[in-house]
């Protein structure tokens, strides 16, 4: 074990939680099994929109390998596991008919976690909207908050006896800004974007209500992707584009949810979709702020694009991961401080990780030193934020396993565990034993 090279964690709370995260569509596979309905991502895969024409039909086949995967988590020593429920697996049409075999899968998973003494953190929505709901207008339809509340009610009633940690959405700003359902990303899609933002916020509030009513002692939050948006050059246009994107990326959801207001620059565009009482419906009290953080993004002005932004390259002196994401742990501690000051909620980091195209060496080992260095530097940054009083209570690595990385398919690997997609064999990487050593050391102090 690489214990000699652990980050410092002296400033972290004694009850700090170490975990790993995954999501349903990215790992489960079994997309056509036991009555699951199609999601919008099955459609994108079927349309050949994914690199290498990959699909998630098998993915990690976690649906059948969940016991082995919980075994991996046990070996890691994590205290918590964040996963998501696939809405179309439990409600194949998104509403109405309930698919009992889908619910039973999550019963088995949750029971397996509890018997391994790993706390389940259940996220309701990690992007796999039932296709049937998309066909009824998806998030453009104001009814979507009622669909989502009904789904939340089903999940809460079924699992609320064993699950106490619930997240409503994963990264609402990302799946909105980059939604394929908005059409071409030009100025004409801005109205649809604002409608979607508001409806997803309403759905969040409605789900918080449902969870609170049904689950005693529920601990509820929403998971936000929060990255500094930096101008690619020092031109006025790029600075303005970066500031504007930053508001949509980082504040469009947490501000109404946690401060009961939309940021100034988007208020007018949201107004046509607003009904009396909406901000109260959205800003239901939550218990924590879920933070996904990877790296700053560099922004350039692109006047005809939606929101007027495009992406520029990072400065030459900023290092990056093999997939080109800049490595900037100081930006992570700054982000933690900013989120702490703006929202005054306990923070759980529910995603942070390193993408690569890891391959086994001749001995069959996956020596991912780059990932270890990255995790070490980022955990140091958490510790340094905690040392100045940021209320950060947990850190979850993305991800337990290599998995279906959205548009990039299987070409990009984020796992602590390598997955051989031909055989579905799981092989822990060097970072796996490093993280296990870290958790062990941290829990002993
Ligand atoms: C996201 C998603 C994950 C990704 C991960 C790596 O944050 O985009 O939550 O599903 O796989 O972030 O890109």
Task: Please explain how this structure is put together.
The protein is of the alpha/beta class. The protein has one domain: Alpha-Beta Barrel (TIM Barrel). The protein has helices at 24-27, 40-46, 62-76, 87-90, 100-115, 131-135, 144-159, 172-177, 190-214, 236-250, 254-259, 264-270, 278-282, 329-343, 369-387, 430-444; strands spanning 17-21, 80-84, 119-125, 165-170, 219-225, 229-231, 288-292, 297-301, 309-311, 347-351, 392-398, 417-420, 425-428. Strands 1-2-3-4-5-7-10-11 form an eight-stranded parallel barrel, surrounded by five helices. Strands 6-8-9 form a three-stranded mixed beta sheet, with helices on one face. A two-stranded antiparallel sheet has the order 12-13. A hairpin with a 7-residue loop joins strand 8 (297-301) and strand 9. Helix 3 packs parallel to helix 5, helix 7 packs parallel to helix 9 and helix 14 (329-343) packs parallel to helix 15 (369-387). It is globular, with a radius of gyration of 21 Å. It binds D-gluconic acid. D-gluconic acid binds next to loops.
- Terminal CA distance: 18 Å
**What fraction of residues sit in β-strands?**
5-15%
H/E element order: EHHHEHHEHHEHHEEHHHHEEEHEHEEEH
Q: In which range does the helix fraction lie? A: 40-55%
Helical stretch count? 16
Instruction: Provide the low-confidence segments as ranges.
Output: none
Structure ligands: D-gluconic acid
Q: Estimate the global geometry from the Cα principal axes.
A: globular
CATH class identity: Alpha Beta
Largest sheet: 8 strands, parallel, barrel
What's the total number of strands?
13
* Named CATH architecture: Alpha-Beta Barrel
Helix/strand/pairing category: alpha/beta
- Largest beta sheet: what is the strand line-up? 1-2-3-4-5-7-10-11
Overall domain count: 1
- Radius of gyration, taken over Cα atoms and rounded to an integer in Å: 21 Å
CATH superfamily: Glycosidases
Query: On the 0-100 scale, what is the average pLDDT?
Result: 97
The CATH topology is what?
A: TIM Barrel
């Amino acid at each position: 074990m690489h214990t000699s090279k652990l980050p410092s964690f002296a400033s972290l709370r004694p009850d700090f939680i170490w975990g790993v995260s995954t999501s349903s569509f990215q790992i489960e596979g079994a997309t056509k099994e036991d009555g699951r309905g199609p999601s919008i991502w099955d459609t994108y895969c079927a349309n050949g929109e994914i690199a290498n024409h990959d699909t998630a039909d098998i993915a990690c086949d976690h649906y059948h390998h969940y016991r082995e995967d919980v075994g991996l988590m046990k070996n890691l020593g994590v205290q918590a596991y964040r996963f998501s429920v696939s809405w179309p697996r439990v409600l194949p049409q998104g509403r109405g008919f309930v698919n009992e075999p889908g619910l039973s899968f999550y019963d088995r998973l949750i029971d397996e976690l509890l018997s391994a003494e790993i706390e389940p953190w259940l996220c309701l929505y990690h992007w796999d909207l039932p296709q049937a709901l998309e066909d009824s207008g998806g998030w453009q339809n104001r009814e979507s908050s009622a669909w989502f509340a009904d789904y939340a009610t089903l999940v809460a009633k079924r699992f609320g006896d064993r699950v106490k940690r619930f997240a409503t959405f994963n990264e609402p700003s990302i799946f909105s800004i980059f939604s394929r359902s908005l059409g071409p990303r030009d100025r004409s899609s801005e109205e649809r974007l604002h409608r979607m933002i508001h409806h997803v916020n309403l759905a969040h509030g409605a789900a918080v209500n449902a969870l609170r009513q049904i689950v005693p002692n529920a601990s509820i939050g929403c998971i936000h992707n929060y990255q500094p948006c930096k101008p690619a050059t020092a031109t006025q246009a790029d600075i303005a584009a970066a500031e504007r994107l930053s508001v949509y990326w980082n504040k469009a959801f947490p501000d109404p949810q946690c401060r009961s207001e939309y940021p100034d620059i988007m208020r007018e565009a949201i107004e046509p979709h607003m009904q009396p009482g909406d901000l109260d419906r959205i800003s239901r009290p939550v218990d924590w702020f879920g933070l996904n953080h990877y790296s700053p993004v560099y922004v350039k002005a692109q006047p005809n694009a939606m929101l007027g932004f495009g992406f520029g390259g990072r400065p030459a002196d900023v290092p990056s991961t093999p997939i080109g994401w800049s490595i900037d742990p100081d930006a992570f501690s700054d982000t933690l401080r900013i989120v702490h000051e703006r929202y005054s909620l306990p923070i759980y980091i529910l995603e942070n990780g390193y993408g690569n195209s890891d391959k086994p060496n001749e001995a069959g080992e996956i020596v991912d030193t780059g990932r270890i260095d990255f995790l070490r530097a980022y955990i140091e940054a958490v510790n340094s934020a905690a040392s100045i009083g940021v209320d950060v209570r947990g850190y979850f690595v993305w991800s337990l396993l290599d998995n279906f990385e959205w548009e990039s398919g299987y070409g990009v690997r984020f796992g602590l565990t390598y997955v051989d997609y031909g055989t579905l064999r799981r092989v822990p990487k060097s970072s796996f034993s490093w993280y296990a050593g870290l958790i062990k050391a941290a829990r002993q102090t």
